[in-house]
Each structure stands twice: as C-alpha cells, then as structure tokens.
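tool=predict chain=A
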Amino acid sequence: MLTPKKINTFTMLKLPSAFLTGVRVKKISEESCVTSVKLRWINQNPFNSMFWAVQGMAAELSTGSLVMAQIRESGAKVSMLVANNKATFTKKAKGRITFTCKDGAAIKEAISTTVATGEGQTCWMKSEGVDEAGDVVSVFEFEWTVRRKT
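tool=predict ok
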C-alpha cells in the first residue's frame, strides 16, 4: 500500500505546484484518503480565503491517491485520467481544510473490471473539504477513467 510519505514525495517531484501550496496526504487506506492544506500567502485569493484551484488540487489528490494505490495493488499496468469534474463551494475556505474521499471500493471495482476485460472504465469519486470547525467548505467530484495498458 502507498504511504502518505511516499505520495508526498511523489507530489514534491511530479506535482510541484501542489507541494509548494501546502497540499499533503495525511492518511490513506484501501477505502479512504485524507489530504490537508492550510491557508497561506501562496495559496490565497484576493478575498482572504483559499484559491479554488488549491482546494481542487487537494481534493483531486485525495481521489487520485486511491486510484494509484488500487492500480499498484492490482499488479497490472493501468492508465488513469480525469475525464470530468464538478465542484460546489459553500463557505470561504480559511485555516486548515481537510479533504476526505471514501470511494476506495468503487475505484477498486473499476480497476478490477478493466484488468479482467481490457475495456476502459469510469468511476465518479467525491472528496469533501471541511474546515477546522467541521463545516463543509467545498465538495469536488472527479470522473476517473482507467484502462488496462496493452
């Protein structure tokens, strides 16, 4: 299984904008992944809250880490790509925002199907951003596509 340390090192090397803005994986299991980002000068917008794209990077990392982990667990060569996404913002993002995705079982099924059949699969995964007070500030949904490489 991937660890937060391994994913955060990957982020530093391959996704430097996410790393520099403070996006980090805090926990990952087979079922869920938690990322976190704190409002800082580098990730703020002119309205004294977190820039929406930084929230998106943290949310996508919570879903994408589960995809990477399940691909690794499958032992097969599988490509992954975001095909669509949706976002809803309900409150200014201030302080530390924690994003949680609990769709590990859904992406595991999609990867198992693509490995077994060779046909591409899609899977919508949701990540909810919550502030330190426990209020939802944003919800992101990503449609991941997976396909076995030939």
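The longest strand covers residues 136-148. The helical segments are 4-14, 16-20, 52-74, 104-117.
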